[in-house]
Amino acid sequence: MSFSPSSRREELGEVAINLNPMMDMFAVLIPALLMLSAVVEVAIVEVSAPSIGPSSDPPPKEDKPPLNLTLTITEGGYMLTASGGELAGIPKVDPSTPMPQIPIKEMPIVCSRFRGTTPPPRSRNADRPMCDDKNARDAVMFWAYDIATLNQAMLKIHRDYPDERRLIVAAESAVQYESIVDALDATRVTRLADGSLETMFDQVVLSPATNM
Amino acid sequence: MANNPNDPASLSNAGGPGMVAGPSEGMPSSAHTTGIPRVRSQDELYSEMRAREKKKAKRMRRKTAHDHPVDVSINSLLDILSVILVFLMKSYSASSVNIKPSKELQIPFTKSLEAPAEATAVTVTLKHILVDDVPIMDLEEGGKVRPEDLAEEQMMLQPLYNKLLDEVEKRKKIMQKNTSVEAKIDMMLIADRFVPFELLTRVMYTAGQAEFSKFDFIAIKLEGG
After folding, report:
1. Is B76 helix (H, G, I), strand (E, B) or coil?
2. In chain A, what residues touch B220 (CB-CB under 8 Å)?
3. How many Cβ pairs closer than 8 A exist between chain A and B?
4. Structural domain boundaries of chain B?
5. Which of A91, B91, B106, B179 has a CA positioned 20 to 30 A from the CA of residue A112?
6. Of the candidates B204, B102, B203, which has an alpha carbon nearest to the alpha carbon of residue A51?
7. Are strands A203-206 and A166-171 parallel, antiparallel or unpaired?
């Protein structure tokens, strides 16, 4: 009896822990976390509200008056005005009959971003067939804001006034949020021919709707 | 039973076909007619028995392998899973914005590459306004504000203003206690693509009154920038 230590040693040796419950937990936790983290990747567009009342910090004294470049988004297109200078190549807006200098255009738009709806301005595209899963990859003719032309115009203004970074954005009250984000995208940065990004007007101030 | 080589009956049975086949292959006809089976040599029988035993042993071995539970080591699998779990947890906590686009909340796209920072999240859809995922206001059809929600001056949204004031108070308290935190009161605006500019300016004006000055419009990052 005393000569049988082998079984004792075996008992004391490797203890098999039951890892199955832990495996079960992991198998549940990992899909749950994957689901939670698999949401869309987002980015931000910085905007400041118009300061109402006296500003806390006085405006810096400058040699030249600010350009006060204003982009007005209407259902008919983009309007660019500046109180502090001339915008070369962009006709002045007649205050009595304001007409957008960059009007909306009918152009082929890739449908994938607009499933179940139409591109803005939606009031103009109300009679068009909506984008759906069937034509998601096609380019369909729609009325749309001329974002590319706005981008080019902004680049030109940026070259004329390289120190100006402030842009006031106003819009008609019916203009939808999507159009505003699109316009902010076009005024904020531009991709140059060599692929680099050039920051243009990144200090955006939203001004209240023009016809409220 | 029939295949048991130790059983003499099964042995003779198993040998049967061989014995029948044997004579038909050119055995003397006398043996066939007399019905006496050809007596096999001892060696032949033994080799047959051995072969059968070998086969059985092989079968038994295979059977025992299946009968006993096999010990698969899941330790390495567990290691992999725990590493994945830690990475997923890290990436989950890193993203401050957690947006689930739905039919009511279709977020527009942007080419911007700036990552969102921690801020008070105000969600605006055509039906509700939420602050940090808590519904604060219901809206009428098409994102119209109900008259009773408007403040006296007809621009501000009263329930939203009250809630945002609380948020600002909270943030200020945190900043007093923890001076290492950069003092800023920012707002993250998560809005549906169909929200009209009028509603947007009302929300921003209200937030401005509650001392928010910087707004981060949240949009889905377009691939390729």
Report:
1. helix
2. 40-43
3. 160
4. 8-67, 94-221
5. B91
6. B204
7. parallel
Instruction: Give residue B209's region: left, alpha or beta (phi > 0; psi -120 to 50).
Output: alpha
The interface predicted TM-score of the complex, written ipTM, equals 0.76
**Contact between A19 and A25 (Cβ < 8 Å):** no
What gap in Å lies between CA A149 and CA A147, rounded to an integer? Answer: 6
The residue with tokens 């203009």 is A175
Dihedral angle sign, alpha carbons of residues B77, B83, B84, B86: positive
What is the residue type of A53?
A: G
Q: How far is A2 from chain B (nearest CA, A)?
A: 31
Query: Across the strands, what pairs with B157?
Result: B150
| Residue B134: both structure tokens together | 């808590």
Number of helices (H), then strands (E), belonging to chain A: the values are 4, 10
CB contact under 8 A, A171 and B207: no
pLDDT per position as a tens digit, A119-150: 888 888 888 888 888 877 888 888 999 999 99
* DSSP-derived pairing of the beta strands B109-110 and A203-206: unpaired
- The answer to whether residues A167 and A204 touch, using CB atoms and an 8 Å cutoff, is yes
- CB-based contact A23 B92, cutoff 8 Å: no
A202 shares contact with chain B (CB less than 8 Å): no
Cβ–Cβ below 8 Å for A42 and B220: yes
pTM of the model as a whole: 0.70
**Distances from the Cα of B19 to the Cα of B35, B46, B47, angstroms:** 11, 16, 16
Amino acid residing at B13? N
Q: Is B218 on the interface with A (CB under 8 A)?
A: yes
Confirm or reject contact between B101 and chain A (CB < 8 A): yes
Contacts (Cβ under 8 Å, ≥6 apart) of B30: none
Question: Chain A contact for B88, CB < 8 A?
Answer: yes
Across the interface, do B112 and A208 touch by the CB < 8 Å criterion?
Answer: no
The answer to whether residue A178 neighbours chain B at the CB level (below 8 Å) is yes
Asked if B12 reaches chain A (Cβ–Cβ under 8 Å), the answer is no
Count Cα neighbours of B130 within 13 Å in the Cβ-side half-sphere: 16
